[in-house]
Amino acid sequence: MNTMTGADVRGRESVTERTVPVRPGMLRDGLLLLAGLWLAISPWVLDFDVWAPRLRVSNLVFGAAIAVVGVGLTLAPERVSLLSWAIASAGGWVVVSQWIILRWAATSGVILNNVITGALIFCLGAASASVFSGKPFLGDDA
């Protein structure tokens, strides 16, 4: 039997609100972190780490950098907000990197991975940058 009163429930909600600050854009920045982590580990998950070592290094370096900026945007957005456009350009690099590095020898799995991940990173970076510049991107109200 639950013996909690309305005051107890309100008290718990206020503790939760104080300990877990939620701000607009946190989901977007968390997705950016996850996209960066995926980009960093994707050569090993999709098994192109052996036959494409230069693309592996590119994905690892850019993925780690994007993940670090994603953490920064999540925890201290006002300090790293200027890096949002750099993240958008990094997403553009991820889209075209397999063709530049591998010179058209990329497999369909590598192409799909980098194009989808890069496009997602570009959109998330541009959305973050537009929030901090005050101009909406793709209907972002944050």
What does this structure look like?
With 142 residues, this protein is mainly alpha-helical. The protein contains six helices and no strands. The chain has helices spanning 6-19, 26-45, 53-75, 77-80, 84-102, 108-133. The N and C termini lie far apart (41 Å). The model has no long low-confidence stretch (mean pLDDT 83).
Describe the secondary-structure layout.
Elements: H1 6-19, H2 26-45, H3 53-75, H4 77-80, H5 84-102, H6 108-133
Helix pairs in contact: 2-3, 2-6, 3-5, 5-6
Largest sheet properties: none
Q: How many strand elements?
A: 0
What fraction of residues sit in β-strands?
A: under 5%
What is the 3D shape? Answer: elongated
Mean pLDDT score, rounded? 83
The helix fraction, in percent, is over 70%
Q: What are the low-pLDDT stretches, counting only 5+ consecutive residues below 50? A: none
In angstroms, what separates the terminal alpha carbons? 41 Å
Series of H and E elements = HHHHHH
Count of DSSP-assigned helices:
6
Rounded to the nearest angstrom, the radius of gyration is: 19 Å
Structural class of the helix and strand makeup? mainly alpha
